[in-house]
UniProtKB/TrEMBL annotation:
Recorded GO CC terms: cytoplasm
UniProt protein name: Pyridoxamine 5'-phosphate oxidase
Lineage summary: Bacteria, Pseudomonadati, Pseudomonadota, Gammaproteobacteria, Alteromonadales
Pfam families named among the record's database cross-references: CREG_beta-barrel, DUF2470
Domain CREG-like beta-barrel: 6-148
Amino acid sequence: MGMPEIALAAKQLARAQHSGVLGTHSTSMPGYPFGSVVPYYLTPEGDAVIYISDIALHTRNIKANDKVSLTIFDNEEDDSQANGRVTIMGNAMCVNESHIEAQYIRLFPQAKGYKQTHDFNFYVIKTERVRYIGGFGKIHWVDKAYWHQEKQEWHSNVDGMITHMNEDHVDAMSLILKHTLNVGVLAPKMCGVFPEGAHYTDGDNVWFVPFEDVCLSAKHVREQLVIQTKQAREALSPAIEN
């Protein structure tokens, strides 16, 4: 695999997971790293978004030193050494952007209640470098030039796309989930769409279905969804007919 393919595999693994280990520089034990588990999502550009409390120890650490890491791993494999994993290294900065909050709430609706405490804020980890291990012998450094996607208008305006899918194409999404992940859900909802794939939910679970190609436009996203729907219908048509 070339570096673009390696970066895509690493990013799709990171999008398929929903929590990681945040590494910060300890202020109470200078010189030692401090790890904590946090939910996250990746922006379309490839930066990680976390939602953390001002009183949390990791937040205090970030305010003292914004250099952090986020380690993400696939916990489906029995052999932890064979699991895919990604470590994102970058600088954490507090942000206040409505589309970031909207996407986070779509993926983690329980976080709505955190706003009532008044001390939770969104932080974006601006990626500088990525370490990707795809299994034994598949070990790579991924420079941000290959990881980063240029910001496009559709990245911040996915609401219409998501609403359209949820109102008009529930059957297609159900087929896609059944075909790609063998998940049987009659009324899934799309809760996120990114250059590398889309997230779906049934209210309790979230699944990520990757695209075959990185999408560089809203038109490309629609084409990928049409392809996935067609493939699912063709693969599942005997079962549907029976």
